[in-house]
């Protein structure tokens, strides 16, 4: 590795950590201060440490975004004691990313999200940046999170190094090094591996990381085991607001809105600002003159049988919304095959129904995940949004609309099954600043 490049990466890590240090210090005057009996001098800086995590391979894109929020707030707490940088796990091989013509591994976070915005919350770097900084493909300690064997009869926060409950995917070679999938990087190995049975919130593991680990980089596979400390509070929303989509994806979505849906930010009152300063009231956003729909199909028809409408039933509900709000256009984000979408469109005789179909270049460059984000971005800017039952894809759109400042009545809605026209609405999680 060239010395100049190594110096640059080190500077990036220092700057992004320093930014969070200053912000934390501004928010909490006692952050980083020593206790009365602590003789540590301010100038005695500690070496930067790295936290890496992974999620159960079966979990989808939008649940992984939720796990990121749990881990990022853990890193924020760690930085109150010593400098930690979050290493972003590369994307790839997700269940719903099924395009056979795409190589969808080792995808950096910058493909999908705006890294400077993430760094306004905690210091983060890409996995490849970490490898360059270390100069060797090594992770010092891995603690594979798992539930306690036999389950639990009462809730209590606890953890313990135990035998592994199941196959972990980690194997040890003759030299004592541990190997696993590691996001498709075959040369990467870990020096130490153990299973950690865990029940607790994300920050409950903080003392363990500070006092029981010494490695420069610690990895936590199955990080979905860590629970939100306070779901829906201001810290949750700071993490969520920092997850701004990459500008190149927003630009594609904005172009589609402008050309097909008569929708622009100035007219829709949906201008995006620096999230650390942006504070919207409910009803500030108007939205484009169209109905945004998340119409979940495929495996969901079986997984949520009885809670989703037929195509005809969904069209009937949407036409009522169009009439109520005097709208003529519908944007549909859906995993439905093309023949189902055409059937759905045919139920609309007086309205235009749109779906984002990526060019070959866009799909190759931004993968299935990028296309999903473009869908979410367009749906989030609609005058009225209606989603699918218990879908994290719909939930992420609802969060985006909360950030933009939409009226909750125009956001927290779902498509009802054909036999229940007055089904229960989704839970309303309003933004907290």
TrEMBL record:
EC number(s) per UniProt?
A: 2.4.1.221
What Pfam families does its record include? O-FucT
> Which keywords does the record carry?
Carbohydrate metabolism, Disulfide bond, Endoplasmic reticulum, Fucose metabolism, Glycoprotein, Glycosyltransferase, Golgi apparatus, Signal, Transferase
Q: Where in the cell is it found?
A: Endoplasmic reticulum; Golgi apparatus
Q: Name one GO molecular function term.
A: peptide-O-fucosyltransferase activity
The UniProt catalytic activity note for this protein reads: L-threonyl-[protein] + GDP-beta-L-fucose = 3-O-(alpha-L-fucosyl)-L-threonyl-[protein] + GDP + H(+); L-seryl-[protein] + GDP-beta-L-fucose = 3-O-(alpha-L-fucosyl)-L-seryl-[protein] + GDP + H(+)
Q: One GO biological process from the UniProt record?
A: fucose metabolic process
Similarity section: Belongs to the glycosyltransferase 68 family.
**What is this protein called in UniProt?**
GDP-fucose protein O-fucosyltransferase 2
């Amino acid at each position: 590795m060239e010395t100049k490049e190594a110096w640059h990466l080190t500077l990036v890590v220092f700057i992004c950590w320093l930014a969070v240090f200053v912000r934390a210090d501004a928010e909490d005057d006692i952050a980083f201060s020593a206790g009365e009996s602590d003789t540590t001098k301010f100038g005695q800086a500690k070496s930067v440490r790295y936290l890496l995590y992974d999620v159960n391979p079966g979990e989808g894109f939008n649940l992984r975004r939720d796990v990121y929020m749990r881990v990022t707030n853990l890193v924020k707490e760690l930085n109150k004691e010593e400098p930690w940088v979050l290493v972003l796990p590369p994307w790839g091989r997700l269940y719903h990313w099924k395009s056979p013509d795409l190589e969808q591994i080792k995808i950096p976070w910058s493909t999908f999200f705006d890294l400077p915005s993430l760094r306004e919350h905690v210091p983060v770097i890409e996995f490849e940046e970490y490898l360059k900084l270390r100069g060797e493909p090594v992770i010092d300690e891995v603690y594979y999170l798992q539930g306690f064997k036999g389950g639990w009869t009462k809730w209590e926060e606890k953890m313990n190094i135990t035998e592994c409950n199941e196959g972990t995917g980690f194997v040890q070679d003759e030299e004592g090094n541990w190997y696993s999938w590691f996001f498709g990087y075959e040369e990467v190995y870990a020096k130490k591996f153990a299973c950690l049975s865990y029940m607790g919130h994300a920050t409950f593991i903080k003392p363990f990381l500070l006092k029981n680990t010494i490695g420069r980089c610690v990895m936590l596979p199955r990080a979905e085991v860590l629970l939100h400390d306070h779901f829906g509070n201001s810290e949750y929303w700071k993490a969520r607001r920092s997850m701004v989509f990459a500008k190149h994806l927003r630009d594609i979505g904005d172009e589609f809105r402008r050309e097909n849906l008569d929708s622009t930010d100035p007219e829709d009152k949906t201008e995006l600002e620096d999230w650390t300063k942006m504070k919207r009231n409910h009803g500030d956003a108007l939205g484009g003159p169209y109905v945004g729909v998340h119409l979940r199909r495929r495996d969901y028809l079986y997984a949520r049988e009885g809670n989703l409408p037929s195509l005809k039933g969904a069209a009937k509900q949407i036409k009522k919304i169009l009439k109520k709000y005097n709208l003529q256009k519908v944007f549909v984000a859906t995993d439905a095959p093309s023949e189902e979408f055409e059937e759905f469109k045919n139920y609309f005789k007086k309205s235009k129904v749109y779906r984002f179909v990526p060019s070959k270049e866009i799909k190759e460059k931004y993968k299935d995940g990028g296309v999903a984000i473009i869908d979410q971005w367009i749906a989030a800017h609609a005058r009225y949004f209606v989603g699918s039952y218990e879908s994290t894809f719909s939930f992420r759109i609802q969060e985006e609309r909360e950030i933009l400042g939409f009226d909750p009545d125009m956001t927290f809605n779902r498509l009802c099954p054909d036999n229940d026209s007055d089904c229960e609405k989704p839970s309303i999680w309003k933004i907290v600043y």
